[in-house]
Amino acid sequence: MKHYLDLVPVSARVHRRQSRLTRLCIVLSVFLIAGIFGMADMEIRSMTQRTVLEQGAWHAMFPGLTERQQSLIAQRAEVETSSRYAVTNYDLNLNYTVDGVKTGICGFDETMLALFPALEIEDGVFPQTAAEALATRDMKIQLGLSVGDTITLETPDGPLAVTLSGFTGSNLLLPQSGAYALFFNIEGYASHFLPDTNAEDFVLYVAFSPFCRIPQAIDEICAVYGLDESQVGQNIQLLTLTLQTDDSAMARLYLIAAVLAVLVVVAGILMIAGSLNSNVAQRTEFFGMLRCLGATPKQVKRLVRREALHLCVGAIPVGLALSVVMIWALCAVLRWASDFYFGDMPVFSVSWVSLVCGTVIGLVTVLLAARAPARRAARVAPLTAVSGNAAPGTACHKAVRGGQLPVEIKLGMHHALHSRKNFLLMTGSFAFSIILFLSFSPTLDFMQSAIKPLQPYTPDASVLSKDNSCTVPKVLAQQIGALPFVERAFGRSFAYDLPAQVACTETSVMLVSFEESQFGWAEDMVKEGDVQAARDGVGVLLLDKEGSGYQTGDTVVFDTPQGEKMFPVAATLNYTPFATSSDTIICSESLFTAITGQNDYTIIDVQLRHGKTDEQVEQIRQLAGSAYAFSNRLLSNSEVRGTYYAFALFFYGFLALIALITVLNIVNSISMSVSARMKQYGAMRAVGMSGRQLLRMVAAEAMTYVCYGILVGCAVGLPLNRFSFENMVTPRWGSAWYMPWGALGVILMVMLLAAWLAIRSPSKRIRAMSIVDTIGAQ
Fold it and tell me: Residue-wise over 479-500: b if at least 16 C-beta within 10 A, else e?
C-alpha cells in the first residue's frame, strides 16, 4: 500500500455490508435519472416517428413560387430534400371519378416519397411518363387491379386513360371518405390538370438539414423571394420535437421540462447525500483513528469522496442496466399498442442519451452529495472518536421529557430532530418525492386535453346513405353483425330540419334514433335525468346546448302521420357524438318510426373484434355493395389509439417511477438511520426497553421525517404544480388550475405505505439481535 487512498478498496470490502444501503441509494438515483431521461428520449423518438408517418418529414411548405424560384430554393445549402406538389379535387367537389367513385388527383416529384413515408410504394414503381400514375391500396383491392392495368379517369374535360405503374399504402383521410386517389409525376400532372389547380395548391415542400437553424432559414427564404410568412406552412409538431421552433407556447414547455429535469437531479443529490451522511456517522471511530495516525482534514475529505466514487463503480452500471430493461419494456408495449406506428421500433433499443445522462449526472450527483459528509468526517476530533463517543455536536445537555407522550415516542422524535443537517437531508429527500410527483402530475391534464381517447361508440367502419336519407336496410346491420370478426353492428336513423315544438318554442330539430347499445353509452352523456323512459319509447333525450335552458320535464311536440304527439324530455345531455347547430333529440327506433314513418337506417357503424384487419373491412364493404357510401376508420383509430397509449405510457410511467423511488428511498433512508444508531438501541435494550417500545420509537422517528417531508413537499410542490399547469394547459385550452386532490392523495398514501414498510424491517432486525451483539455492532 503506497498511498492512503489505497485504503478505499480495502475499506469497501470490510464495510461492504454497511455500504450496501448506500450502493442501493446510488442505484435508485441513477435508475431514476436514466429512466426518466430514457423514457423522454423514447417518447420523443416514438412521437417523431409517428409525426413523420402522419404529417411527413418536411419542415416548410412554400406556396406561390415560380419554377425558377422553386429551383433556387432546392439548391440552397441548408435544404436537404425538396419536392414540388400539386393537388386538385382535394375537397372532392369536382367531377373526377374512377368507376363512379370520386377521386383526388395529386402530382409530385419522386423525392416526395422520402418526405411522406406513408406514400411508400408497396407494389410497382414511380410513374415515369405523363400517362402513368400510382393508385391507392383501396382502389387496388376494390377494383381488383394490378400493376400495368389501364383505368379510365372521368374528368370535366372527358375520359382520360391512365396506366397504373404501382400502388401506395393507406392514406389517413381517403378511407374515411371512401374516395380514391391517383398520384402522377409533376410533369404528367401539369400536362393534364394544371388548369383546374388553384395557385395556393401548387407548393414546394422542403426538408432542411438538421444542422441549420430552420426558423432562421425560413425567414431568409421569405425575405429573399418576398413571401408572406403567414402563408408559409410549417410542420410545427416535427419542428417542436427537433427543438427547431420559436413558438412561445413550446418555449414554456421547454421551460417546464428543464425545471423537472433539475428537480430530478436535486432529488438524486438528496437521496445520496442522506445515505452517505448516515454511512459517515456509523464510522466515526474509523475517521478518528485516521486523524490519530496523522491524516489531515483535507485528506479525510478526499478519502470520503474517493469512497463515494468507488461505490459508483458497481452501483451506476446496475442503475443503468435497470433503466435499459425498463426502456425495452416500454418499446415492447409501444409495439403492442400500435404496430402501424411503432412496428419499426426495435424492442431492444438502447437510449444512449439516458446512458450518458445517467452516468454523467450520477457521478456529478455523487460528488455533490459527498461534500457535506466529507466535511463532517473531516471535523471528527481524534480523541473523541477514539473514545467511542458519537460524532461532534451530538452532546445532550438535558434529558428528554415525555410529557403527555410516551418516552419512546419523544425519543424517536428527538432522534429525528437533534441533528439539523441529517434532519434537513432526510426531510428534503422525502419532500422532493412529493415535489416531483406534484410537478409531473399536470402532464396528465396536458395529455387528456391534447389527446382525446377513442370513445366506446367509435366505429371501425361505417356504411352510410349517399344522400343522408333513411335508405340503409336494417337487415344489412344484422348480416354484418353475424360476421365472425364483428364485435357489434348498430345503426342510427336521422331526420334533419324536422319541425317541432321544444319547451313551447317552435324550432327545427335533428331527430336521431338509438338502439340498446347506444342508449347504454348515452348514460355517460347525461347531465340530468334518466335514459330509461327514452329507451322504452315513451320519452326523448335532448342535448342541452349552452344557453338553451332546457331541462328534464320539458315537452317536445312533433307533427306525426297520426297527428300531433307530445313527449317528455326524460334526460338532458351534456354532449352527443354528432356535430350540429340545430337542437338534437334522441329517441328509440320505434318512436322514430312513429314520428317520421321511416323504418331503415341512415348509417350503420361497425366495431370489429381484436385483431382487426383491412381485409375484414373490405369484406364488409363488399357485403354492403356499391349502393352506399363506405368509411374505413381503422387507420385513423390506430392513430388515435397509438398516440394515446404512447402518451399514457410515458406520463403514467413517469409518475409510477417516482412513486417507486419514493417507496424505496423512504425504506432505505429509515433503515440506514436505524443502522447508524445500533449501539444506542442496544444500550436501550440493556436498560430495559422492550421490543414494542423500540418499534414505537423507530415509528416515531420515521413519521417525524415523513410528516415534515409532507409539509415541505406540499408547500413547494403545490406552487410548482400550479406553475406547470398554467404554462402547459391554460395557455392552450384555457382551463383554470385546480387543487390536485387526486395526485396529492396518491403520493401521500404512497409515502405512508412506504413509512409502514420502512418501520417493519429494521425493528425486526433489532429485536432479533442479542443485546451484546447490538452494543458491539459496527
Answer: bbbebebbebbbbbbbbeebeb
